[in-house]
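Module 6 notes. Inverse folding takes a fixed backbone as the condition and produces residue identities as the prediction. Think of it as a translation problem where the source language is geometry and the target language is the twenty amino acids. Below is one complete input and output pair. Work through it position by position during the lab.
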């Protein structure tokens, strides 16, 4: 451990269970000396696992539906109170598509659900920053990170309307990054992570094949949730003060690979 987050305060969203990327981020942030609150949607709280994480990180859980302005206001007020100061970091680790969950074909989307997908998976990021800015809870020089997927740039058919949500999410990071950068020297970035076996990840059709393919297409292999947590910590730390408004690929090289030896081998074998 490097004490990279010593004295820093923050909020970590999206830890549902031990597989969640946010869960690993919380464990790493705690180990690096940060203090933070945890939050998730009230429905997700019923599973109860997040309370274990809170105990292990010596903190509290504040329920908040990330699409609700009221809930977010309450989240920030309680967090500031509990942590005793302004926030140095925020992790947005939230994604859900009713269309993907219910396996709706891309040519037969339910538009009410599409709007929900966008609200939960993308607008919530804007809401978190807008509410935080209005309440003036962000410390100067802080860092805000959201998690995304390369389906924003390339087609992955089973990813459905989440592809549009991720494109909006990444765009919000640039627009709000500009604003918060000028106002308070705050960085805003998205991390584009490899497929990872979590509840959200495995909800996408054909996930196992997807993961195997990505692994073979990546010279370093897929990045795990733990790897992702390590990367998030660097972005929350003072070592990345001038990195902002970026979509940062954290995918073992997948995004820059056209074909790999492993894929050639696989196709040769199957011929
Ligand atoms: N797993 C992957 O393959 C993968 C790859 C790239 C990016 N991501 C992204 O990483 C992030 C975290 O997902 P994960 O893979 O750890 O899965 P996960 O299922 O563990 O986390 C998703 C979280 O979103 C929360 N959530 C859903 N609706 C919410 C709402 N209205 N308000 C507040 N929280 C809400 C869920 O309760 C859950 O904790 C997501 O943005 C996801 O799209 C995942």
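Target side of the pair, the amino acids:
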């Amino acid at each position: 451990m490097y004490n990279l987050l010593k004295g820093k305060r923050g909020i970590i969203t999206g830890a549902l269970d031990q597989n969640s990327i946010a869960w690993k981020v919380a464990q790493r942030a705690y180990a690096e000396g940060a203090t933070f609150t945890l939050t998730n949607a009230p429905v997700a709280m019923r599973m109860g696992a997040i309370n274990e994480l809170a105990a292990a990180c010596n903190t509290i859980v504040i329920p908040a539906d990330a699409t609700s302005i009221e809930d977010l206001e309450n989240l920030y007020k309680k967090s500031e109170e509990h942590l005793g100061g302004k926030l140095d970091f925020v992790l947005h680790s939230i994604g859900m598509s009713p269309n993907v969950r219910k396996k709706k074909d891309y040519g037969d989307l339910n538009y009410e659900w599409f709007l929900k997908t966008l609200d939960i998976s993308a607008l919530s990021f804007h809401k978190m920053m807008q509410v935080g800015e209005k309440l003036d809870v962000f410390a100067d020089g802080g860092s805000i990170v959201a998690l995304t997927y390369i389906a924003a740039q390339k087609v992955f058919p089973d990813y459905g309307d989440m592809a549009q949500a991720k494109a909006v999410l990444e765009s919000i990071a640039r627009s709000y990054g500009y604003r918060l950068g000028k106002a308070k020297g705050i960085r805003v970035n998205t991390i584009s992570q490899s497929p990872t076996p979590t509840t959200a990840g495995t909800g996408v059709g054909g996930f196992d094949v997807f993961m195997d393919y990505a692994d073979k297409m990546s010279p370093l292999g897929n990045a795990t949730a733990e790897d992702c947590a390590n990367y998030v910590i660097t972005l929350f730390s003072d070592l990345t003060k001038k990195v902002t408004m970026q979509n940062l690929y954290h995918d073992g090289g997948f995004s820059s690979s056209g074909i790999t030896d492993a894929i050639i081998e696989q196709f040769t074998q199957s011929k």
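Reference fact for the lab report: Strands lie at 9-13, 35-39, 87-92, 138-148, 187-193, 247-250.
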